[in-house]
Amino acid sequence: MSLPNAIPPVAPVAGGVRTFASFWIALLLWVWIAPNDYLLSLGGTFFINLLLIASLNLLIGYAGQVSLAQAAFFGIGAYATGVVTTRYGWPPVAGIAAAVGISAAIAVLVGIPTLRLRGHYLAMATVGLNVISSVLFVGLVDLTGGPNGLIGVPSFHVLSIDFGAPERFFLLAWGCAGAIMLGLLFLTRSRVGRALRAIAASDIAASCLGVPVFLYKVTVFSLCAGIAGLAGALYAHQSNFVSPDTFSFFTSVLLLVMVAIGGFGRYWGPVFGAFIYTALPEVMRTWHDTELLLFGVAMIVVVGFFPGGLAASFARLFARRGR
After folding, report:
1. Cα separation, 256 vs 264, whole angstroms
2. Predicted pLDDT at 15
């Protein structure tokens, strides 16, 4: 049975596009209402975190493939653009393209053997990738700068337009995240999105219905890695510095927690997760040790009392108000 016949038709996405457009235009207002440049730069960080969490949500929430290597692809993207722009003089546009391409290509090479595994075996394999990448970020001193990090990554610019200023970088990150989120909206509500959900439910049953399961697994794994690489490139050009500590296994765990808090398989879930992931460290900056405790408590509360995450809880609330 062919894929178009195996996956039922989906509802039109016109309503979702209108909601997305309204919300995304509202986010643009932060450029004018942010009280200072620091909070404006946090807005750019929010969009970077949104890319990371949304891509991981696509992989886990929609395709059912548990990965603990998101920080690795995040770091690969950051170091890729950092190395080619500082060591070889490439323009930042080419650096971002290299970050996305290298991250996606490594995901294909890693995914071909590992995505044949299931459940916790797949998660353990991706942990290995995160550990290997952390070792390489520190060990390849001539390229990455070693434990001291990579210094002097240029701000993003196109021709004579420099996006180093906080308001311009905010617009850059806003546009990149908007394009990715809009693409994910169409993807998750298409036949391919239904196929991914079928794989998450039962890859054996999906295969019997004619879905090319392994091809879809490798493709979505590569796509999510490419998005994480884009986030890493934006991070490198925003901070002008890349440190291996940013891309540790602990970061992968926190990103997974944010996906769970937002809601696995919920389109708007990553927005809630990215907001918490961006805001909570700033609020708890003076109580650094308490920050990790709050992340853990938030995970327990959401999983135990808010099934479906914050996105599902808000959806139920609005549904009740509508009735």
Report:
1. 10
2. 62
CA dist., res. 318 & res. 48, Å (int): 28
Q: Which two tokens stand for residue 71?
A: 């920080």
pLDDT of 9 above 50: no
The strand ranges marked E within 88-223 are 150-151, 157-158, 161-162
Beta bridge partners of 242: 150
pLDDT at 194 over 80: yes
Q: Which amino acid is at 147?
A: P
266-286: pLDDT as tens digits: 999 999 999 999 988 777 776
Task: Please state, in angstroms and rounded to a whole number, the distance separating the CA atoms of residues 176 and 238.
Answer: 14
Distances (CA, A) of 315 to 24, 301, 322: 18, 18, 10
pLDDT tens digits for range 229-268: 999 999 999 999 999 999 999 899 899 989 998 988 999 9
> What are the angstrom distances between the C-alpha of 312 and each of 16, 64, 89, 265, 277?
16, 18, 46, 10, 18
Which amino acid is present at 306?
F
The rounded distance, in Å, linking the Cα atoms of 22 and 268 is 14
Cα–Cα nearest to 66, from 21, 114, 122 = 122
**Matching residue, tokens 């999510």:** 224
Confidence at residue 8, expressed as pLDDT on a 0 to 100 scale:
41
Asked whether the whole model's pTM tops 0.85, one would answer: yes
Gap between the Cα atoms of 124 and 191, Å rounded = 30
CA distance 84 to 213: 35
Q: Contact at 8 Å (CB) between 186 and 194? A: no
Q: 149: which residues sit within 8 A by CB, 6+ positions away?
A: 241, 242, 243, 244
> What angle (nearest 5°) sits at the alpha carbon of residue 283, between those of residues 278 and 287?
120
